[in-house]
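Colleagues,

For the teaching module next term, I've prepared a clean inverse folding example: a structure given as tokens, and then the sequence designed for it. I'd like students to try predicting residues themselves before seeing the answer, so please don't circulate the second half yet.
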């Protein structure tokens, strides 16, 4: 028996192969995807892609079989990054499915699904209905129709690279040396195509596609996975370092000293560039990005729009406000010119353009976008998240000069500092983010809130 509820998450499908997620599940999901999205009555075809994990080709083929069994055609773009699948969905105006488990370890795989034009499929927009149908049909033979659909291959790598280079032209920038750590993920497939022209010398690190991740996990959010890139940037005398996650939809940036550049600083820099092209536009930022981000957006004539954490909320607000750009502190970046989908590669091109269009090193350039001191996300295990958050609100909510909101968890803002604490959707964790104007204040607030979370005595501080 397949525990469908365990692998169908809020935004995607993800589980251990083959114990939780196998070809039978993928096949049933392909058929259910077509039925729930009513593909037969609409475009009559779907597009699929897959990453470098050993299990990905077979799972994608099973999904294609399930979809084709309903009578719709399947376009298989083969090896792809997740943002390349979004490109295919947008360019071809077809619903799509990407086989990847992103940054998860090798034993995992999954599916990210979208409607035509790269519009997300989440729990509230079809994924729950797909899961319910899969639960009913996974152990049954796939029914056949008199005229099953055809599966055809289509190579879109060059078209994807051309589209990105049309959006950000690097041909006029100064020469740059850039170390790229693909983490044995899909960046090793897409980076050579995107940077085939222009004055950027790429120093490749772990470009060999290997879903067993022999060098380090393809999760740049964990500092230990950036160590090799940081050392290589300094050793090579490079201008910049870029790290992509397993499916290459997120990009992290390292300056010439080997130090990380905050994704909030990247969000601010890209927002400024997009507002120069589209004056007065809205820009989305999630509520744990630096306070510098909305300040920069407003200073450059844009309208900052604050959103909950998570791509479905970002994309929804981008559609509602016609925002030109959206950024999250997790290094997901969304572009109106890319069907409002997230693409780390396009963000990387903007970073290189910003650096190459002037003479300062990356550390000096991005210091202009780093105005505050942040704790980074701190995760703590708790028995009762709701009770803990309530206790934190009781402590801070009545203080003079503080404001409280509940857009996503609890945010307390005192002007010179703020923090957000929110519960994980999948684990007994509270996630804390703190920011302040100086390190001492940030550390004081951080330790104060952590004491409440862990149950330690709280020392009153002014």
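(Answer key — instructors only)
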């Amino acid at each position: 028996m397949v525990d469908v509820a365990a692998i169908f998450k809020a935004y995607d499908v993800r589980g251990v192969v083959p114990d939780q997620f196998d070809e039978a599940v993928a096949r049933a999901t392909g058929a259910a995807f077509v039925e729930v999205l009513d593909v037969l009555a609409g475009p009559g075809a779907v597009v699929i892609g897959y990453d470098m994990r050993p299990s990905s080709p077979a799972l994608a083929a099973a999904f294609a079989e399930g979809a084709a069994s309903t009578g719709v055609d399947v376009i298989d773009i083969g090896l792809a990054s997740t943002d390349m699948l979004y490109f295919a969905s947008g360019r071809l105006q077809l619903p799509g499915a990407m086989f990847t488990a992103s940054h998860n370890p090798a034993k995992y795989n999954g599916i990210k699904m979208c409607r035509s034009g790269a519009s997300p499929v989440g729990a509230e927009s079809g994924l729950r209905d797909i899961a319910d149908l899969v639960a009913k049909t996974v152990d049954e033979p796939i029914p056949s129709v008199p005229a099953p659909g055809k599966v055809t291959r289509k190579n879109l790598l060059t078209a994807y690279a051309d589209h990105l280079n049309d959006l950000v032209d690097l041909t006029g920038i100064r020469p740059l040396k850039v170390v790229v750590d693909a983490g044995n993920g899909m960046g090793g497939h897409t980076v050579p195509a995107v940077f085939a022209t222009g004055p950027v010398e790429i120093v490749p690190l772990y470009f060999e596609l290997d879903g067993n991740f022999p060098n380090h996990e393809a999760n740049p959010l964990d500092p230990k996975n950036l160590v090799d890139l940081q050392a290589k940037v300094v050793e090579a005398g490079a201008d910049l370092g870029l790290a992509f996650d397993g499916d290459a939809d997120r990009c992290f940036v390292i300056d010439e000293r080997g130090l990380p550049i905050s994704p909030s600083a990247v969000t601010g820099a890209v927002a400024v560039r997009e507002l120069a092209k589209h004056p007065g536009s809205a820009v989305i930022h999630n509520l744990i990005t630096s306070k510098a981000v909305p300040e920069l957006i407003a200073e450059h004539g844009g309208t900052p729009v604050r959103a909950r954490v998570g791509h479905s909320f970002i994309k929804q607000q981008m559609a509602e406000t016609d925002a030109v750009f959206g950024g999250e502190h997790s290094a997901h970046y969304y572009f109106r010119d890319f069907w409002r989908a997230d693409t780390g590669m396009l963000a990387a091109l903007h970073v290189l353009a910003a650096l190459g269009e002037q003479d300062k090193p990356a550390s000096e350039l991005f210091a202009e976008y780093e105005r505050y001191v942040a704790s980074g996300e701190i995760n703590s295990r708790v028995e009762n998240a709701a009770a803990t958050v309530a206790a934190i609100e009781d402590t801070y909510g009545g203080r003079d000069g503080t404001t409280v909101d509940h857009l996503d968890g609890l945010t307390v803002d005192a002007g010179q500092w703020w923090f957000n604490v929110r519960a994980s959707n999948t684990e007994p964790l509270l996630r804390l983010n703190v920011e302040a104007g100086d390190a001492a204040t940030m550390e004081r607030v951080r330790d104060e809130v952590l004491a409440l979370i862990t149950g330690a005595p709280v020392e009153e501080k002014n």
